[in-house]
Design brief:
Helix content: 25-40%
Largest sheet: 7 strands, mixed
Shape: globular
Strand content: 15-25%
Radius of gyration: 16 Å
Oligomer: single chain
Order of helices and strands: EEHEHEHEHEHEEHEHEE
CATH architecture: 3-Layer(aba) Sandwich
């Protein structure tokens, strides 16, 4: 439990506090009022809480793995000024949890932050498949985090990817071409690529017509 800005969070993430404002400055253009958002890997809920404070009309569904879900639910219960729906357990590689998410009302946006480089590549592909299944035509998928670019090599991201792979060979910073290809195969167009602080990006994909 960490105190920050006079707010108490379980599983507090300093990076989420640093990047929430820059992300919102860009993301808000893709989230008009009354949008319904599914967040994959909500962590401590810091982004969900901050973004819905900026736009209280957003309907934000948080998800987490089972071992982090309870702490996230406590944060939302104690720190939110508005009502969040109950946190849903989600492992994108688990068909049971995916089917529970699909059974919810459709979403306008799928959002995730700093997750694709933690997932296995199979997990990333499953995330893309989930996006295709829960978003309508015109729905957007917004992904924040580091990525690798052949024409713009960033040594810190290359080093970070090597460090991740030492901990777990299935993790690693993802190549932007592979991410774009995976989304294209799921019926998405690559709408925008926004540069963010600390060599991160905010990628926006839009679901095309079938």
């Amino acid at each position: 439990m960490v105190i920050n800005d006079q707010t108490t969070y379980l599983n507090y993430a300093p990076a989420a506090d640093r990047n929430k404002q820059p992300i919102w400055q860009v993301l808000q253009a893709y989230l008009p009022s009354n949008q319904s958002v599914l967040e994959v890997a909500s962590g401590s809920g810091q982004h969900a809480l901050y973004f819905t404070q900026q736009n209280p009309q957003l309907r934000w569904q948080c998800t987490e793995l089972s071992d982090a879900r309870d702490a996230l639910q406590i944060n939302l219960n104690e720190l939110s000024v508005s009502k969040f729906p109950p946190v849903k357990t989600l492992d994108v590689l688990n068909d049971y949890f995916v089917s529970e998410i699909k059974a919810l009302a459709s979403f306008d946006c799928l959002y995730t932050s700093n997750s694709l480089h933690i997932m296995s590549w199979d997990g990333c592909l499953a995330f893309m498949s989930l996006a295709s299944q829960v978003l309508p035509e015109g729905g957007v998928c917004a992904i924040y985090g580091p990525f690798l670019y052949d024409d713009q090599p960033v040594q810190s991201n290359i080093d970070f990817s090597a460090w991740l792979k030492e901990r777990n060979p299935e993790s690693g910073v993802r190549d932007i071409k592979e991410v774009e290809k995976g989304f294209r195969e799921e019926g998405f167009e690559f709408l925008a690529d926004h540069a963010m602080p600390a060599n991160n990006r905010l990628l926006i994909f839009k679901k095309s017509s079938n």
